[in-house]
Design goal:
The structure holds 2 protein chains of 2 kinds. Chain A contains 10 helices and 10 strands. Chain A is α/β, with parallel strands linked by helices. In chain A, helix 7 links the parallel strand 7 (about 160-165) and strand 8 (about 195-200). In chain B, strand 1 (about 130-135) and strand 2 (about 135-140) form a beta hairpin. The N and C termini of chain B lie far apart (about 55 Å). The chains are: A alpha/beta, B mainly alpha.
Chain lengths: ~260, ~300
């Protein structure tokens, strides 16, 4: 198992419990999705893995995070990146004042060999030809889709074993969402990079993922293969836009309980 | 008005301005990487000059040893200030960190003259004090050499920011969390910025020390440096060069042209007026990056 979270709890400001005992596994070369609504704790789980909780005054208060069997909770974010964990932040967060090429160079600070960096950059520009066209513009002026591609390319410059993506489809046009997800599954299949994907767009995510977890209120409601989750009627109704077969005359007038909370 | 007098004032003003700009380069370096205004820059310049003088006088070293020794010492001095003082301020309000740098400024300003004696020390870097005549124009040699050396140092820092590590430092300036997320050691980049700021301060301190002697008043360069950094836009190195020239020429003209009319020294209010005017009319300065906002 490449990544394993065992019973992880995350507390912000020492009072607010955002993640309440979550266990997740990402296998080697796997593509795993975390699904859930706003504020469910999905991003917090990613930050507990990448170590980026600290700037937000959060900490893992219980449980363990194992990467390749090694505990990583006490390591700095740059150390974790050097082990092969990289986190593409929500909202892309490209270096706006730098050009795309400089964005890629900045992310290669762990590689000593300049030739290796250039080879990696060429690889990124073949993977994302659009970035090559805009290589001279400031990244802040790229379109949303281009920025997302740049954010992914920048993360790949660190040569990760595990690529974590936080809402890559956020604010993108539907055809771009398809393009981004296409790229993600290609990176996973062709380069053997494991992917942990956080998404609100559950349909798109379940199409590419092998397995997925449903998160609500900082807990895991359900986990399993993507096929299993897609065919689950409750998931279909709550996350995939309903099955359109309800007879609204027969619907009772109290709010339907989510069965899994019982 | 005499053309030669004006030309002389402008030329000397340009060189003086470039020497000021070298002090303010350090403010820009630190602002660019950590978003913090370093108010200890004047005292760092003073310290660099004192150290150079000390290595020369106490250990009897020639100037070509004492300058590199001071530069190396001050680089680690800058790194040490970041490590020991400013890193504790991470997560605290920015104003606390800025006040801390002001505290360092005041402490050094009191400490060094106390240790070495308050009398003005002579720092000889081998430049002749005799003025240089170009036609009818009189140029102060030590100021001319100071200005040229300053310009060279500032331009080389521009080149540095296009190197690989320079790009990393610009990334840190842009977004610290995103920098962490791709494995950049943010704290190290900021420490290096402090080291380089201390080095640029030392360069300026030595050049100024050679023209006016070494004493606590070198730390007053802070005010000019601040005016230049603010006018240049706080995060722009070309801005520092242009703003330095503007401040230098304005001061020089104020001394030569305005002083005889008002029967008083207007030199020292120029910097303050420039700070005030910039903040009122062009808060981003001449070259400051405005925040890129996509709609």
């Amino acid at each position: 198992m490449l990544l394993a979270l065992n019973n992880v709890e995350v507390v912000y400001d020492r009072v607010f419990l955002a993640v309440k005992g979550v266990s997740i596994e990402v296998p080697d070369r796997g593509l795993v999705a975390l699904l859930g609504a706003n504020g469910a704790g999905k991003s917090t789980i990613l930050k507990s893995i990448s170590g980026l909780l600290k700037p937000e005054r959060g900490e893992v208060s219980r449980g363990e995070v194992l990467f390749n069997g090694q505990p990583i909770v006490n390591l700095d974010p740059p150390e974790r990146v050097r082990m092969g964990i990289v986190h593409v932040l929500e909202g892309r967060r490209v270096f706006g004042q730098l050009t795309p090429a400089e964005n890629l160079i900045a992310a290669a600070s762990m590689h000593k060999d300049r030739g290796h960096v250039n080879a990696l950059m060429d690889k990124m520009f073949t993977l994302f030809p659009r970035l090559a066209q805009r290589a001279k513009a400031k990244a802040g002026y790229l379109s949303g889709g281009e920025q997302q591609m740049l954010a992914i390319a920048r993360a790949l410059m660190t040569e990760p074993k595990l690529l974590m993506l936080d809402e890559p489809s956020l604010g993108l046009a539907p055809f771009l969402v398809d393009e981004i997800f296409d790229i993600i599954s290609r990176i996973n299949a062709e380069q053997g990079v494991s992917v942990l994907l956080v998404e609100q767009n559950a349909i798109a995510a379940l199409d590419v993922a092998d397995s997925a977890y449903l998160i609500e209120n900082g807990r895991i409601l359900m986990g399993g293969s993507a096929e299993m989750l897609k065919s689950n009627p409750d998931v279909a109704e709550a996350y995939l836009g309903g099955s359109h077969q309800s007879d609204y005359h027969a619907v009772k007038h109290y709010r339907r309980r989510k069965r899994w909370l019982a | 008005m005499d053309f030669f007098l004006i030309a002389e004032l402008v030329i000397n003003g340009v060189f003086v301005g470039l020497m000021y700009a070298l002090v303010s380069l350090g403010i820009v370096l630190i602002y660019k990487t950590s978003g913090l205004v370093n108010l200890a820059q004047g005292a760092l310049a003073m310290t660099g000059a004192y150290i150079t003088w000390m290595v020369g006088n106490y250990f009897g070293m020639p100037i070509w040893i004492s300058i590199p020794a001071a530069v190396v010492f001050m680089f680690f001095g800058g790194v040490f200030i970041e490590r020991s003082a400013l890193r504790r301020m991470i997560g605290q309000p920015v104003i606390m960190a800025i006040m801390l740098t002001l505290g360092i400024e005041i402490a050094l300003r009191g400490l060094l003259p106390g240790v070495f004696g308050a009398a003005v020390k002579k720092l000889d870097i081998g430049v002749s004090p005799a003025p240089l005549f170009v036609g009818d124009i009189l140029i102060n040699q030590s100021i001319m050499i100071g200005g040229v050396v300053s310009l060279a140092l500032i331009l080389s820092s521009l080149a540095f920011f296009n190197s690989r590590y320079g790009i990393v430092m610009r990334a840190v300036a842009d977004d610290q969390t995103a920098s962490w997320s791709v494995g950049i050691r943010v704290e190290k980049a900021i420490a290096v910025a402090w080291g380089l700021a201390a080095v640029s301060a030392t360069g300026a301190g030595i050049l100024w020390g050679a023209t006016q002697g070494v004493d606590w008043s070198l730390s007053l360069l802070l005010i000019k440096a601040l005016a230049i950094a603010i006018l240049g836009g706080l995060d722009s190195i070309p801005g520092v060069i242009l703003a330095g020239v503007i401040v230098g020429v304005a001061e020089s003209l104020a001394t030569g042209v305005v002083d005889p009319f008002v029967q008083a020294s207007t030199r020292d209010i120029v910097a303050s007026v420039i700070i005030l005017a910039t903040l009122l009319f062009k808060p981003h300065g001449l070259f400051g990056h405005e925040h890129i906002e996509r709609v």
